[in-house]
Amino acid sequence: MANKLSILNARDHLKYKICVSGAAETGHCAIDALEKAEQVGREIAQAGMVLVTGATSGIPYWSAKGAKEAGGIVIGLSPAASEAAHIKTYHLPTDYHDLIIYTGFEYAGRNLLLTRSSDAVITICGRMGTLNEFTIAYEDNKPIGVLTDTGGMADFLKDIVDKSHRGPGKVIYDPDPKKLVGKIVVAIRKEKIRNHQK
Q: What is the pTM of this model?
């Protein structure tokens, strides 16, 4: 066991990635949802993690803003096939990201890559696309944080999970951005240790 942990510690230079999933259009979100998204981004950066977003507006954009202003690294996965399409066709932003990958897979394909490339997902507010990202992460048995009291899908997810009769998954619910990110960081680290055990 000690040998496994030393191997894991030797690999700590590989930063863990947390995806923030949430509504691009936030008119239905709680009044403080954008502020909380920004705080989540800040907390991710301060924990030494990489933020991954769908390179879009709204909740993901504000989380990217929080992470970048806290000195973090932000990677975006765009549904567009090029920077020109990202800006001119999809009308999506390019600021507050260190790197944007142009997937060319539209939103549904991008959602799959977005969650699969992350070690955990945090859901804030959200609409149908956020629900899609949540269910992919749930099916992949990833740690998922749900920032409750932010409106939209985030406030329905516990009920959806309960009524799905598939068990609780690795879903953590908390209304406090700092506490939620802290719990997700612990879950990621536990997952990494399990992955290195036989």
A: 0.92
